[in-house]
Write a structure and sequence with these properties.
Elements: E1 10-11, E2 15-19, H1 25-32, H2 49-60, E3 72-76, E4 82-92, E5 97-104, H3 113-127, E6 133-139, H4 143-151, E7 155-166, E8 171-181, H5 182-185
Parallel strand pairs: 5-6
Antiparallel strand pairs: 1-2, 2-3, 3-4, 4-5, 6-8, 7-8
Pfam families: Acetyltransf_3
Organism: Paracholeplasma manati
Domain N-acetyltransferase: 15-183
């Protein structure tokens, strides 16, 4: 299922997805310093570039020890700047599933970019990582993420009531769960 195989670089209409690198820290800081962009995430907003570097090192790069993909930088084709990240996480080897998480710089919202990225990552999960089912979750309040997930063809599965304690709001939130099975995509 998951190996240290080199992850493919993916070229889409407006962006390129490639493995996240240490040198992306400055661009990652620019994405993650915006409190609106990071509102529904468990991290951010970044206050220093050091925080972005630390997150790349201790969140993304630690996945290599578990033989999991680091994650992708989303690069604007015109500027070659990183404008977001998209990654696989929470691998369940027994059920052969994983989750996808993502963040995109606010200037690029509502342009179909993240939906295209989710589509591409789903294909990588099925064809490159041999995953059977991909899961995406969001808290109830994150309606923009819900639109991306549904446009990418994921099926709503359930609401986990008051199941996530958010460190920013200091309260519990409902979590919406979606999935897409490899057999659905064939």
């Amino acid at each position: 299922m998951i190996t240290n195989r080199k992850m493919p670089t993916i070229e889409l209409d407006r962006v390129i997805l490639r493995t996240l690198l240490k040198k992306d820290a400055n661009d990652f800081f620019e994405v993650g310093k915006d409190p609106i962009t990071t509102e529904f995430l468990t991290w951010g907003p970044f206050k220093t570039i050091k925080e972005a570097k630390t997150m790349i090192k201790f969140t993304y790069f630690r996945r290599m020890a578990r033989q999991e993909p680091i994650g992708y930088a989303i690069l604007d084709k015109e500027t070659h700047q990183m404008i977001g990240t998209i990654e696989f996480h929470t691998f369940n080897r027994k059920n052969n599933t994983c989750e996808i998480g993502y963040v995109l710089k606010r200037a690029y919202w509502n342009q179909g970019i993240m939906t295209a990225c989710v589509d591409a990552m789903t294909k990588v999960a099925f064809e490159h990582l041999d995953i059977d089912c991909v899961i995406i979750k969001h808290i109830k309040e994150n309606m923009a993420s819900q639109r991306v997930i549904l446009k990418a063809g994921y099926q709503f599965i359930e609401i986990n009531k008051q199941s996530f304690f958010h460190p920013k709001t200091h309260r519990f939130h409902d979590v919406y769960v979606y999935e897409k099975w490899r057999k659905q995509s064939l």
